[in-house]
Amino acid sequence: MKKILVVDDEPTLVATLKYNLERDGFQVVTAEDGESALDLARSHRPDLVLLDLMLPGLDGFQVCRILRREMQAPILMLTAKGDEIDKVVGLELGADDYVTKPFSMRELLARVRALLRRADIRPEGEREVLTSGDLSVDLAKREATRSAQAVPLKPKEFELLAFFMRNRQRAFTREQLLNQIWGYDYAGDTRTVDVHVSWLRQKIEDQPQKPARIVTVRGLGYRFDG
Q1: How confident is the model at residue 82, as a pLDDT?
Q2: DSSP secondary-structure letter at 66?
Q3: How far apart are CA 109 and CA 115, in angstroms?
Q4: Are residues 144 and 50 in the same domain?
Q5: How buried is residue 222: exposed, middle or buried, by Cβ count under 10 Å (0-12/13-18/19+)?
Q6: C-alpha 215: how far from chain center
Q7: Which residue in 160, 198, 161 sits closest to 179, CA to CA?
Q8: Residues 71 and 137 in one domain
Q9: Which of 9, 23, 47, 50 qualifies as a cystine partner to 2, CB 3.0-4.6 A?
Q10: What are the residues facing 136 on neighbouring strands?
Q11: pTM greater than 0.90 (yes/no)
């Protein structure tokens, strides 16, 4: 049974989420503030975290940053704000997806299941290592190095880089990349791809503003030329 940590300071919403998640077969633990969320995450090691951004004490951004340093469980942000910058900042801190309140329970459950499915994909015994010049990606260890130095990658950055390196010299549209990495049931938009490509370029390119590995194909999307 997958365990989900729900972090929100709205009792009615927490009760609703807990009821629906448990009815869907999940084990649920709840927290109403950032400090409690961290304590519960460390003691229960949840498989996924539903995290509200607006929390008393430590806010959701701070909690997300700390959680991502300590564990790889998917983080689904809950936010009442419509400002795109909040969503972008949350993704930069390591969140995997977001939903804006009010949201439908069906959509939320679909996203939860999709994130858990992708987190479960861990090929056993796979020894494939992808290389491109000084860049190396170990698929079994889910580690990337550049000039023998570790490259810190968020889960979706790793998956996107591995996909590119497995499909060198092939151009993909943003929609194709979105479907391949985030899944067909992902409800976000193609800007998510652009944000992650930008992050990757900062980490694997000599000149991120003039990328030589992940190049833009005008009018289409991206191609890995490494």
Answers
A1: 63
A2: H
A3: 10
A4: no
A5: buried
A6: 22
A7: 160
A8: no
A9: 47
A10: 131, 145
A11: no
Q: Phi first, then psi: give them for residue 54, nearest 5 degrees.
A: -95, 95
Query: Where does residue 217 rank: exposed (0-12), middle (13-18), buried (19+ CB within 10 A)?
Result: exposed
Give the SS3 label for residue 130.
Answer: strand
* The token pair that represents 167 in the structure block: 């499909």
Mean pLDDT per 10-residue segment, the chain (226 residues):
94 96 96 94 93 90 86 86 69 83 91 85 58 89 89 90 91 89 67 93 95 95 92
Range of the domain at 35: 3-120
User: Could you give the CA distance from residue 132 to residue 94 in angstroms, rounded to a whole number?
Assistant: 25
Residue 143 sits in the same domain as residue 103: no
Name the token pair of 9: 């300071």
Instruction: Retrieve residue 49's tokens.
Output: 């975290």
Assess contact for 165 and 132: CB atoms under 8 A.
Answer: yes
- Token pair 């564990």 is found at 71
**In this structure, what token pair is assigned to residue 115?**
């994130």
